[in-house]
Q: What sequence folds into this?
């Protein structure tokens, strides 16, 4: 199974979960970065406002070709109960993803709000079928059982 693990991580928490998925399932790990980095102040002001509006940041890499993969895994922190502008940019940058399966996850301090719903809708508009959704709050990120459930969902999404 070829897996493309796409994520944005502001504090490293989302990266940690993405790395756990890669260690268990293999695949390509792709961290997207906004071209204009956020400071601590602008992440919670400008970044959250842009997230709330559903805006997409210009990102690096500019294009994400998912044609080689069987499964797409997409992870984001939650900003203002929504996916980050960098992940919105990643979804916009996705190419050759029609017909692929995806597993999505969000990390948050408390409540995820509409984060996974927004991601699912955006991916489905690109022809991607979301087969599993996970939210990890601050306590869940160290919950081995919940991480194992995410890994199992990624493995189950692959070719049968």
A:
């Amino acid at each position: 199974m070829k897996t493309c693990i796409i994520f944005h991580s502001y504090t490293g928490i989302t990266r940690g979960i993405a790395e756990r998925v890669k260690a268990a399932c293999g695949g390509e790990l792709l961290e997207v970065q906004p071209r204009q980095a956020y400071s601590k102040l602008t992440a919670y002001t400008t970044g959250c406002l842009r997230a709330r509006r559903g805006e997409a940041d210009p990102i690096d890499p500019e294009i994400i070709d998912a044609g080689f993969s069987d499964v797409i895994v997409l992870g984001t922190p939650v900003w203002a109960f929504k996916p980050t502008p960098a992940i919105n940019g990643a979804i916009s940058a996705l190419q050759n993803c029609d017909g692929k399966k995806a597993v999505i996850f969000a990390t948050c301090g408390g409540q995820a709000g509409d984060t996974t719903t927004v991601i699912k809708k955006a991916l489905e508009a690109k022809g991607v079928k979301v087969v599993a959704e996970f939210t990890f709050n601050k306590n869940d990120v160290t919950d081995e059982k919940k991480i194992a459930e995410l890994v199992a969902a990624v493995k189950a999404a692959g070719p049968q």
